[in-house]
User: Fold this.
Amino acid sequence: MANTLSVIDMVTREALRIAHEKLSFIGTIDRSYDSSFAKNGAKIGDTLRVRNPNQYVRRKGSRVMDVQDQDESTQNVVVATQDGVDMKFNSAELTLSIDELSRRYIEPAVSVMTSGIEGDVLAGCTKAVAQNTGTTTEVVGATDLDAISQARAKLNQQLAPKDNNRCIQLDSVTMAAVATGQRALFNDQKQLSTLFREGYLGRFAGTNFYENDRTYAHTNSSDADVAWAIDDTTRLAAYTDADGLTVLNIDAMGTVAPTVGTTFTIADLYDCHPETKAKYAHLKQFTITAVGAIASNQADVTFSPTIRTGGAKQNCWISGGSGSIADLEDNVTACYGAGSSLVYQSNLMYHKDAFTFVTADLPIMDDAIRCVRRMQDGLSIRCWQGSDIRNDELLLRLDILYGYKALRPEWACRVNN
Assistant:
C-alpha cells in the first residue's frame, strides 16, 4: 500500500509542477485555494463571496460632516467546473522512474488538460473586459506600439496598481511583430532568467510580455455593421445612482443578435476618473454579457460595467443636452470593429488582481484506497487510481475543480488586431 500511494503521490506532484509551468495566463492572475469545499460538516456549496472595496464621495470645501452609509457589496465566484484527464498503465509501465513516466504520459496528459482550462478561462475573462484598443485591420506592432501604450494608459486611468503584476498575453503573430521592433528587449538574458513560466519573453513599459496562442478570437454577428440606437425611455426614467443601469433596449439591431463579448460605446456617454469623477476625453466602453430575443429589430441588451452617472460609484459622465440620463434616448451606439461576421484577435493586458482563479479540494472517496490530493500555488489536483484485474491495467484519473471571475475588469484592456 505504501509503495502504491508513493507512486500516485509522485504522479500528482509531477502533474502540479507541469501545470504550474504551462499556465501562462492563470499563473499570472490571482489564484485562490479554498479547503472549505471538502471539509465534512463545513461545506460551503459551490460559491465563494468576494467583498468589493467600499467607495465614498469627497466632502469638498466644508467643515460640516456629511456622513455616508457603508454600501458594502460582494461578487460571487462559482467553483463548479470539474475538468480532468484519464490514463491507463500496465504493471510494467508503472515501474518506470518518475522522469520517464512524466515524459511519456503525465506531461502530454496534463498539457492537454491545462491548455483547455487556460483557453476557457482566458476567453471568459477577455469577454468580461470592456476596455479595448487597437484596430481590426492592423497587427499590433507592425508599425508601432501605440495600441499597447494606449492599453497601459487605460489601466492607469482606472487606477490599476503600477507594480510588477501587470502582464500582457499576445498571440504569436502579434508577438512576432512586437518583438521585431523590440529585439533588445527580448534578448535581455537577465530578464529571461527572472521567470520560468512558459511563454514569458520579457518586460517592457512596466508590463510582463507573454506569448500565448490561446488568446481569445472574437467573431462579430452577421449584423454587426448595423448602427444601433437606444430606445428605452422606461428604464432611463427609472434610473437611480444606487442601482445604475445594466440593461437597455436597443433598436435598429437588424435580425441577428450581437455576439456576447462584443464591445460598444454610446454617444455622449464618457468615461471618468474613479475617484475625482473628472470627465475623460474618451467615450465609456461596454461589453455585452447577454442579449434577449430580437423582435422588430430591437432587443434588451445586458452589458457591463453598470452605468452610473452620480454618487460614490459614478463611472460615467454625460455630455450634451441637459446632462441627465434621459439624454441617452435615441443616442447612437457604436459597435467596436463593426463588420459583418468580422473575426479579430483580442489580446489582453491586465493587472494580476483583475481576475481570480479558484480551485477547491475534491473529496477523497470512502472506498478509494489509492487516492491522493495535493495543492501547490493555489492549484488543487486529485489523483485517483483503480485497477482492472482482467487486463492487468491500472486506471488513473487526474481531476481539478475550479471557477474564475473578472473581479475588477476595469484593470484590464483588450489589445485588438
Q: What stands out?
A: The longest strand covers residues 393-406. The radius of gyration is 25 Å. Residues 192-196 have pLDDT under 50 and may be disordered. The chain has six helices and 22 strands.
